[in-house]
Amino acid sequence: MCALFIQRLWDYKSALEGYRYTIVLVIFALSLLLSGVLFWAIKYIVHPTARTLLRVFVGLCLAAVVAYLVLASGFPTSLLV
Hints:
By secondary structure, the chain is an all-alpha fold. 69% of the residues lie in helices and 0% in strands. The model is unreliable at 1-5 (pLDDT under 50).
């Protein structure tokens, strides 16, 4: 963010970097909000198979978010195992 205020770096590339980070943060926030709503809604689903499949789907989505955060922050892949 500080790079945007340096005059010679004031170009479309640095502005695009900030926009990409904003999109990623919005996607993470929406995914956490959706998973919270789905976890809350699971208790109202009567069919046990549908309830289990929804739990698995939400768990996989949250695992994908955590894996992306770990890999994007520079930790080795072996940390996920």
